[in-house]
Design goal:
Layout (H helix, E strand, L loop, with lengths): L2 H6 L1 H29 L8 H7 L1 H13 L13 H24 L4 E2 L7 H32 L4 H21 L9 H26 L3 H18 L3 E2 L3 H4 L5 H16 L14
Antiparallel strand pairs: 1-2
């Protein structure tokens, strides 16, 4: 079977997706072990976390060569600049809104800890964040989302890819130190809903642009501005409950943004394989 035929066969696509999921979790389990054993995502200078985040990419590349003999469908071209700009700025907008409400309502303290040489800090921080996010996005939005879009509708693409992405984080949330400051019964559902909301925006940008890079930029921008810019500017007993990765206020704003993209799902190209259920 030729590459084009294999890439469009529903049965082969399903087998490829299952192979990717299994291979990804097998590879990731190696670094789950090290991170959980050390009890920190920053162990060995964050090396284990970096390698964990590249497991989806490795699994996607191996799977694609096994089933499709190519990685051309990952979306390596940058695509239109408007999607790249939107992807980078969207997290800045929803994070700013959530933290702005938090500060205006005096729910916590604005510390004023703005980094010196902020332009250099943003540029270097963004580049580093891209290096980490790229590994995940090659797997999730480079491989998984486009393959799912061949065999099901956008709603299921989001639910399936988002659920797998969330589950992939669970070991380091439950047994590691991915989130701190809130109990597990609170942080786990908030985080999961945030992942599902983000999956709507990320999947929409990937399918609309035809490029992997908007997803990479959005993921990198979210991680950098949330963890390195806004969290250090905030303190207070309620901060982890309302803002940050496990903040319900941030989740509410993110869900509002996700709803906008979900309502635009009819603007996406139809990539379903003919006859797929």
């Amino acid at each position: 079977m030729k590459f084009n035929e294999a890439s469009k066969s529903p049965s082969i696509v399903k087998k490829a997706i299952i192979t990717f999921i299994i291979l990804n979790f097998v590879l990731s389990s190696i670094f789950y072990f090290f991170i959980i054993s050390f009890g920190s995502l920053n162990a060995v200078g964050g090396l284990y976390t970096f390698l964990l985040m590249w497991c989806p990419a490795i699994a996607a590349i191996i799977t694609s060569f096994i089933f499709f003999k190519s990685i051309k469908e990952f979306g390596w071209k940058p695509g239109k600049i408007k999607y790249l700009i939107a992807a980078y700025t969207i997290p800045i907008m929803y994070i700013t809104i959530a933290y702005g409400i938090f500060w205006v309502l005096d729910l916590g303290v604005f510390t004023g800890n703005i980094p010196a040489n902020i332009i250099i800090f943003i540029v270097m921080g963004t580049v580093l964040s891209i290096m980490f996010a790229l590994g995940e996005e090659i797997g999730w939005r480079g491989f998984l989302v486009p393959q799912l879009s061949k065999i099901t509708t956008f709603n299921y693409v989001v639910l399936i890819s988002g659920a797998i992405w969330a589950l992939w984080h669970f070991p380091i949330i439950i047994f590691g130190s991915y989130t701190t400051g809130t109990p597990l019964w609170y942080s786990l559902p908030i985080f999961t809903l945030g992942i599902l909301a983000s999956s709507i925006i990320l999947a929409w940008l990937r399918l609309k642009s035809g490029s992997l890079w908007p997803a990479v930029l959005l993921h990198a921008s979210h991680d950098f501005y949330l963890g390195n810019m806004f969290d250090p500017l905030t303190s207070g007993t309620l901060s982890h409950y309302l803002v940050g990765e496990t903040g319900i206020l941030l989740l509410a704003v993110l869900l509002a943004f996700a709803l906008i993209f979900w309502k635009m799902r009819n603007k996406l190209p139809n990539t379903l394989i003919s006859g797929a259920k």
